[in-house]
Design goal:
Order of helices and strands: HHHHH
Distance between the termini: 31 Å
Number of domains: 1
Structural class: mainly alpha
Shape: globular
Number of helices: 5
Strand content: under 5%
Number of strands: 0
Low-confidence stretches: none
Helix content: 40-55%
Mean pLDDT: 89
């Protein structure tokens, strides 16, 4: 489980975008505050940060990759079928999060470069280059 840098979304394969969506769903639901070594940093932030991240992912999934995302996940209070919805959401915080360059402070330029390198070597970018005819 990992959260890719949000600037990588547009470079990810459809399958990887779908996988990232499933991970966000799990984290928003029963996985919230359950320790996992690669994503523990997100629990230092209010859940609104994860929701904002997930909404950016959903936008890219639907617009660039033509992935249909279930409507409930677009609701900022939704946490899955087995969790009660969020009672209170700080909409001002959500607005401020969306105005920033990246959602989590850990998602900085070094992480972006590392994630882009990972995508390239995992073939997401390599396949994209070949599909577009560039080498």
């Amino acid at each position: 489980m990992r959260l890719w840098h949000e600037k990588c979304f547009e470079h990810m394969s459809k399958q990887r975008i779908q996988g990232q969506h499933r991970e966000c769903c799990a984290l928003r639901g029963r996985g919230w505050m359950k320790p996992h070594s690669t994503v523990n940093y997100i629990f230092k932030y209010p859940i609104e940060f994860l929701v904002a991240y997930h909404l950016k992912l959903i936008e890219c999934a639907e617009n660039k990759h033509r992935v249909n995302i279930a409507e409930p996940w677009k609701d900022i209070t939704y946490r899955g079928k087995k969790k009660e919805p969020l009672i209170q959401v700080d909409k001002l915080l959500m607005h401020r999060i969306n105005q920033s360059d990246f959602i989590y402070s850990e998602h900085d330029e070094p992480m972006f470069l590392s994630d882009m390198t990972d995508l390239y070597f995992r073939d997401d970018l390599n396949k994209e280059e070949n599909k577009n005819g560039s080498t």
